[in-house]
Amino acid sequence: MTSEPTGQPPAAQPPAPAAPASTDNRISIEDFMKVELRVARVLAAERVPKSQKLVKMQVDVGTEQRTIVAGIAEAYEPEALVGRLIAIVFNLKPAKLMGIESNGMVLAASPEGGKPVLVTFDQDPGLGSRVR
Q: Per-residue pLDDT for 8 more than 70?
């Protein structure tokens, strides 16, 4: 059965509903294992001049010492950080923050609208130990 042309444009079809955007941003265990989280001890810490949020830290990861810049100055006085055991991202590419090369990232929880809270350890698992 064929239909005769009527000279009328075909009726507009309503647009198909868009597929819902995927909100599943979970990563595989293989991807997670690429991130090297390690235990470090803060050896020295100081505020970064001209910054309200940044602290420059010298940390010991057992096999080496590194400089890490972290946005935790609103929550921690630099002298209170010295001696603490913290968790860091060890294999992050270096980044310049306020002209200082940061070789890693400090792990901290950041509640919405609140101050950061460092990921720390009650017992010393050993500097450089892998966090999994």
A: no
